[in-house]
Amino acid sequence: MTTDTISSTQSSKTKEFYEEAAKYWSQVPPTINGMLGGFGKISATDIHGSKSLLKQLFNSKQFPGRGYALDCGAGIGRITRFLLCNLFDKVDMVEQNPLFLEAAKRYIGPNLMENKIGEMFAVGLQNFVPEAGKYDVIWIQWVLGHLTDTDFVQFFTNCRNGLKSNGLIVVKENITSTDSIEVDERDSSMTRPIGVLKDLFRQADLDCFRVTKQLNFPKGIYSVYMFVLKPSQFNAMIKDIKSSDTGSSGEISPEDGDFDNQLSLLQPEGVVDK
Q1: How many CB atoms lie within 10 A of CB 225?
Q2: Of residues 140, 160, 152, 144, the one with CA closest to residue 231
Q3: Per-residue pLDDT tens over the stretch 202-245
Q4: This prediction's pTM
Q5: Nearest to 136 by CA among 95, 171, 165, 172
Q6: 3-state secondary structure 122-187
């Protein structure tokens, strides 16, 4: 088998993986229960946990701004409406199913649509590239199981470039209880163990500086964790210095007077595993 044949086979499987997922979601009703796979009753608890995390981040030493957020895998706008619109001036939404975005306009309501919602992108995350330097927070929840590892890393690389200088990415995902990836052929998705997720984040040059478990979910479902990510210290330092020092080549050395201060500002606060 030639390299070209292997590549073609992998490409065909990837295409099928995404097509099957799109087919599944095209048959899901645009309701909260539909978005949450029949677990609509957990929505309020989920939003409460997410809001608590964001408020902690706003009160931290390296707090993000509250100007612009991006909701990835937005569905009909549950997270946009109940979480992000309450905490940010503007929210963009990206969702591959255009029918969900149409339903979102009704679900979110005319007032929030006019005053809070920016752009609505009808595209899969594997093909989405955010505008550079636009977002304070990029929120990604219950959608990464629909990305292959390769597209996962590329998507997060794109998101990293879409952040403002002090921006953050927050991921909220199901986690397996073992070290194995679990595949659900019904909706063409996978659930990854925590170690695999952290490794993929690293491949996208992102530091995971806070991890916390969602509490008070019912028994019998996957554990859900929230990950707070920021561009890796070295890359973020280069970006900051290049943007602030137009009179130099952008190279960093210990002789630069502001080197230690730049580095100290980029230290993570520590990881909290529960």
Answers
A1: 18
A2: 160
A3: 999 999 999 999 999 999 999 999 999 999 975 655 555 555 54
A4: 0.85
A5: 165
A6: CCCHHHCCCCCCCEEEEEEECCHHHCCHHHHHHHHHHHHHCEEEEEEEEEEEEECCCCCCEEECCC
